[in-house]
Write a structure and sequence with these properties.
The protein is of the alpha+beta class. It has a single domain, classed as Aconitase, domain 3, CATH 3.30.499.10. The chain contains eight helices and four strands. Strands 1-2 form a two-stranded parallel ribbon. The chain has a two-stranded antiparallel sheet with strand order 3-4. β3 and β4 form a beta hairpin. The protein is globular.
Length: 158
């Protein structure tokens, strides 16, 4: 999906903060060996640690960009955190007003949209004057199965 987003010319809006905190080094191996990590990094999802490193979202560990902090405070915005992990998602940063847990592809889709109020199944959205639908970038089952077969079954599990 990250590759498809880049092929479509999409990028994460500057007001959306991203990071990648895999559950373990094994997940990093999957991402690196599959070639997916480079696409995630091009979109701004860089590995910042493992497990709960960043997702705890407390003031000390989660360094929100200073310009984002200023905009949120000046405009009394309701900001959210969206993760695909299974850790606690209670509020641990004073500027994060809500937290949502969803699948990794949906975290990416909402990050690209820069908005959680969008109905990804029905609506199109615009990033850098480019309109697209989630269907434009969602990977097809065949691509996923080929990747699973080549990487996970043949390289990692053997």
């Amino acid at each position: 999906m990250a590759k498809n987003a880049l092929d479509f010319g999409l990028k994460i809006p500057s007001f959306t903060q991203t990071y990648l905190s895999p559950g373990s080094g094994v997940v990093t191996t999957y991402l690196r060996e599959s070639g997916i990590l480079k696409y995630l990094e091009q979109l701004g999802f860089h590995i910042t640690g493992y497990g709960c490193k960043k997702c705890i979202q407390n003031e000390e560990n989660n360094n929100l960009k200073s310009d984002i902090k200023q905009i949120v405070n000046e405009n009394n915005l309701i900001t959210i955190g969206m993760i695909s992990g299974t850790r606690q998602t209670q509020q641990r940063h004073s500027l994060i007003k809500a937290n949502y847990v969803t699948s990794s592809p949906l975290v990416l889709a909402y990050a690209l949209a820069g908005n959680v109020l969008i109905d990804l199944e029905k609506e199109t959205f615009t990033v850098d004057n480019k309109e697209f639908s989630i269907r434009d970038i969602w990977p097809n089952r065949q691509d996923i199965e080929e990747l699973e077969d080549e990487l996970i079954i043949k390289k990692i599990l053997n």
